[in-house]
């Protein structure tokens, strides 16, 4: 009975100590939640305890990393409210009512040790009875007050906040200057066709323009001339063109039909004229319409469809003679890559089959084998031609025979 009474007394003591809200004129957040509020008037300070005394390492409006092995701590400060609290990265309460932290297990968050109450000098152990092996911790408001007093933290925070506000006002004025410059900016896109597929390349591409600047709330450029402007052009074209930007700087890039240009204010003209070159055309469909024949049969490879993963051939076959033909297999060749259709079917005398299809999944092939297909997915100066062929293995009058033909084809002629 006496042990139960002592345990209850300890619990009451723990509860009362966690609810302290003011000490030496310093206030603590209620409820005691060690997370910095999202507000512009918050500062962060890194403190270190050396030889029993607290020292201020740095203070700023942004978080700084904490070295747990060097007795460093990070707090957030609301100077106008005289409020200071540890700014832990991660924590978990053992008991929300008493605000006790659970430190009985290894404290890891996303597989990394973080700045947390279990590794902090701003928390203290609370033990419930002699036979308990797991420790619980609670905020040590006395230690926080001691650190604030020894470092003159609130005085330093007010001084730093005055400088932060001044810096924010300077950056705001700079942003307003840049907005006036942005309003005057224009872009005239030049498009030049190098494929000889189109007569007037500039008519194939239109664009939307937006211009913005890279000016942070704090720590912005001192000189207006060094501010970066970013020109974003959303390109629109319906021809699957392969476009290449050639300009003054490697910083300019074209990705996913978004052209991004960057210029310093000092080098930005009121009118920028970037140049895009049409270097090729992405192809998803070929009108091959290639016919091969011998004295027995004719095969017409009509079209070829290319997706990101598959190939699809559309073809016709026709029996030219008076005997029945049994087709054993048909192999299509694209730049020496073989695609075989193994369905067996018969052609009666002087009859044919139209609109036959065969699909294959070329994306499952090895990269070096798939290159034969990749070469025809784009028509440009490097891949103006490709070799297409057909091999039909068939039986007629009990005799095994083969029709095998190949031809070089100008890709731009079958688009």
Brief descriptors of the model:
415 residues, 5-stranded antiparallel β-sheet, 4 helices, 30 strands, 41% strand
Helix vs. strand class = alpha+beta
Biggest β-sheet, characterized? Answer: 5 strands, antiparallel
| Overall number of strands | 30
Helix content: 10-25%
Assembly state here?
A: single chain
| CA-based shape | elongated
Count of alpha/pi helices = 4
What Rg, in angstroms, do the CA atoms define? 38 Å
Write structural notes for this entry.
By secondary structure, the chain is α+β, with helices and mostly antiparallel strands. It is 16% helix and 41% strand. The protein is built from 4 helices and 30 strands. The strands form 8 sheets. Strands 20, 21, 22, 23 and 27 form a 5-stranded antiparallel sheet that branches. Strands 24, 25, 26, 29 and 30 form a 5-stranded antiparallel sheet that branches. The chain is elongated.
């Amino acid at each position: 009975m006496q042990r139960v009474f002592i345990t209850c007394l300890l619990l009451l003591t723990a509860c009362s100590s966690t609810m302290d809200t003011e000490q030496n004129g310093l206030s603590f957040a209620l409820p005691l939640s060690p997370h910095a509020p999202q507000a512009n008037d918050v500062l962060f300070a890194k403190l270190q305890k050396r030889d029993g005394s607290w020292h201020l390492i740095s203070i700023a409006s942004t978080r700084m990393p904490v070295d747990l092995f060097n007795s460093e701590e990070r707090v957030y400060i609301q100077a106008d409210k005289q409020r200071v609290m540890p700014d832990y990265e991660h924590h978990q309460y053992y008991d929300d009512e008493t605000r006790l932290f659970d430190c009985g297990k290894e404290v890891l968050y996303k597989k990394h040790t973080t700045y947390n109450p279990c590794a902090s000098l701003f928390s203290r152990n609370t033990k419930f009875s002699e036979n308990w092996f797991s420790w619980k911790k609670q905020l040590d408001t006395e230690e926080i007050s001691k650190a604030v007093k020894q470092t003159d933290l609130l005085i330093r925070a007010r001084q730093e906040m005055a400088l932060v506000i001044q810096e924010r006002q300077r950056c705001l004025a700079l942003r307003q200057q840049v907005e006036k410059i942005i309003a005057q900016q224009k872009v005239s896109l030049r498009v030049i066709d190098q494929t000889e597929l189109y007569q007037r390349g500039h008519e194939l591409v239109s664009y939307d323009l937006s211009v913005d600047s890279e000016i942070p709330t704090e720590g912005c450029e001192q000189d207006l001339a060094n501010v970066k402007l970013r020109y974003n052009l959303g390109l629109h074209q319906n021809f699957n063109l392969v476009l290449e930007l050639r300009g003054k700087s490697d910083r300019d890039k074209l990705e996913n039909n978004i052209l991004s240009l960057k210029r310093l204010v000092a080098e930005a003209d009121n009118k920028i004229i970037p140049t895009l070159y049409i270097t090729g055309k992405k192809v998803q469909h070929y009108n091959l319409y290639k016919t091969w024949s011998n004295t027995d049969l004719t095969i017409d490879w009509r079209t070829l469809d290319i997706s990101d993963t598959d190939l699809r051939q559309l073809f016709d076959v026709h029996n030219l003679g008076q005997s029945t033909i049994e087709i054993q297999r048909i192999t299509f060749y694209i730049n020496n890559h073989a695609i075989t259709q193994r369905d067996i079917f018969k052609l009666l005398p002087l009859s044919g089959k139209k609109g036959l299809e065969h699909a294959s999944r070329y994306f499952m092939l090895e990269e070096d084998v798939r290159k034969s297909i990749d070469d025809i997915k784009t028509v440009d100066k490097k891949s103006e031609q490709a070799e297409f062929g057909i091999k039909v293995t068939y039986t007629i009058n009990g005799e095994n025979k083969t029709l095998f033909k190949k031809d070089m084809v100008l890709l731009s002629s079958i688009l």
